[in-house]
Design a protein that fits this description.
It contains 19 helices and nine strands. It is α/β, with parallel strands linked by helices.
Length: 502
């Protein structure tokens, strides 16, 4: 590139030795590469097609080069040719180019170019240097904000803001998604179908660990937002942790071919409480007995064995309470950067998140921001995001307490943004609350008959949980049943498929 040195603008030439600026650090840049790329584009506009998606005018260090590139973009976008002749009129009287010869500078750029083959490499280097300059600016902002002791902004908020800006900066250089022709899309669909066909489970997404649920959903799919809702005591958290462990276990056993690592955001329970549930499930010792210390000395062996089985799974717990949706997205990005195997995110639960700005007067708008943020996170990280959700009390006021979409709290945005909505329903819970009481003047035989019928119905629904798929953007809705053991907070397949009324 030595042939280009004669056209470096005088204002950007290195300071003369001994001028007092020897120790002054200049922002990272390479003017010769900028000149070479602009010359290549002006000589042959086909070079722009190689770099136009990656490079923006603000990525150039020299303001004159930035303006030239912007003008080139404008002409090419109009379907016109961008060369020294078409651009000359725009720059003859431009103060930014006066110091280097005005419009003649454009011709100098072209005559100094030997080939356009290196255009992409030049663009990549220009962008790399731009990123470095942005990092310098971001670092200065972080320092200045830290010195500014603004009582309205906590240090943790500054950290989250800096992390978010860093992530955005890391993403801006990635090539934007281009168009995809139908043939490519069809080939991709056939490959997914082939993968599902070759698997015994016939699923294409992340397994839930439950046979019948996998059959209905074909697994949990990348970029999907899955809402798992239910009233308190239905077992939402238990089902979510069961699904998360099943996914992590499948990944471990398949060597990464199936399943996924899981990031579990527990806004309600501590990491120790989540771990306690997992120990109960994998040792067969009820969690309340573990918590109270009512177990045998020999049970410590079970704890150690279960701990060893669980510890080498890719299951990561963040139990930070009351965080914002922006903070959760920042933490999820950071976790995936640190642990590349994370392929699923679980949030317990949605209503404990808050928006970027507190909206005490309009919770619906805040929930809308949260659900949009969760859906954006699923697409951004290309993973399924499962968010647990509470249901409104309207369920308790109906005779039929099976939940439906309208029971979702602040339901509009949740239902709209979700790809899949599932409800957990256990008739056993409500049946136990309706034990018959003797009526006035009721005979012993009549009461005993009623009580016996109640007991018989209780046996039919004992340990049965229904998972109601109320919305499925990719397939059928319906209901599947699973076995639920509340002592160990464990969901599992029923030995025989269970007919559930639709």
């Amino acid at each position: 590139m030595s042939e280009n040195r004669n056209i470096i603008p005088a204002s950007f030439r290195p300071p003369v030795a001994g001028s007092g600026f020897d120790n002054l650090r200049r922002p990272p840049n390479n003017l010769e590469v900028e000149q070479a790329l602009l010359g290549a584009i002006l000589m042959n506009n086909a070079a722009y097609e190689k770099v136009g998606e990656m490079l923006r005018p603000e990525h150039f260090y020299d303001p004159a080069h930035s303006r030239i590139y912007a003008a080139v973009e404008t002409l090419i976008s109009r379907g016109q040719i961008a060369d020294p002749r078409t651009l000359r009129g725009m720059f003859d009287n431009d103060p930014a180019l006066t110091a280097v010869g005005g419009g003649n500078y454009l011709a100098d750029l072209v005559t100094s170019v030997v080939t356009i083959i290196n255009a992409e490499n030049y663009a990549q280097l220009i962008y790399e240097l731009y990123l470095r300059r942005q990092l310098i600016g971001l670092g200065e902002d972080v320092v200045n904000n830290a010195y500014d002791q603004n009582v309205e902004q906590r240090a943790s908020d500054q950290i989250e803001s800096a992390e978010q800006k860093l992530f955005q900066l890391s993403q801006t250089g990635e090539a934007k998604r281009s168009y995809v022709d139908l043939n490519t899309s069809l080939s991709s669909s056939i490959r997914q179908a082939e993968i599902a066909f070759r698997r015994d489970s016939h699923i294409t997404g992340v397994t839930t660990g439950l046979r019948d649920l996998d059959y209905k959903l074909a697994g949990l799919h990348k970029s999907d937002l899955i809402i798992l809702a239910g009233r308190p005591a239905m077992g939402k958290t238990a089902l979510a942790t069961n699904i998360g462990i099943a996914a992590a276990k499948a990944m471990r056993e398949s060597g990464g071919k199936d399943g996924a690592g899981v990031a579990f955001f527990s806004l309600e329970m501590s990491s120790e409480q989540v771990a306690m549930r997992l120990l109960a499930e994998h040792t067969g010792i009820p969690s309340n007995e573990i918590r109270a210390g009512r177990f045998q000395a020999d049970d410590f062996t079970k704890f150690m064995e279960a701990s060893q089985r669980l510890s080498n799974m890719s299951f990561y717990i963040d139990d930070t309470p009351a965080i914002s949706i922006a903070a959760l997205r920042t933490r999820a990005r950071r976790m995936q950067r640190l642990h590349k195997d994370i392929g699923m995110i679980i949030v317990d639960y949605l209503q404990l998140l808050h928006g970027s700005a507190r909206r005490d007067d309009n919770r619906v708008l805040e929930i809308s921001e949260i659900t949009r943020g969760l859906k954006a996170l699923a697409k951004e990280l290309n993973v399924p995001v499962m968010a647990l959700s509470q249901l409104s009390r309207n369920v308790e006021n109906r005779e039929d307490k099976r939940p439906q979409l309208s029971d979702l709290r602040e339901s509009g945005s949740i239902e709209q943004d979700a790809d899949v909505v599932m409800f957990v329903y256990r008739e056993e819970y409500y049946h136990a609350q309706n034990e018959p009481k003797r009526r006035d003047n009721e005979s012993d035989d009549a009461f005993n008959n009623r009580h016996q019928r109640w007991q018989e119905q209780g046996e039919k629904v004992r340990n049965i949980a229904q998972i109601i798929i109320g919305k499925n953007r990719h397939g059928p809705t319906g209901t599947v049943a699973a076995h639920f053991d509340g002592r160990y907070t464990r969901f599992s397949d029923l030995e025989q498929r269970y007919d559930v009324p639709e």
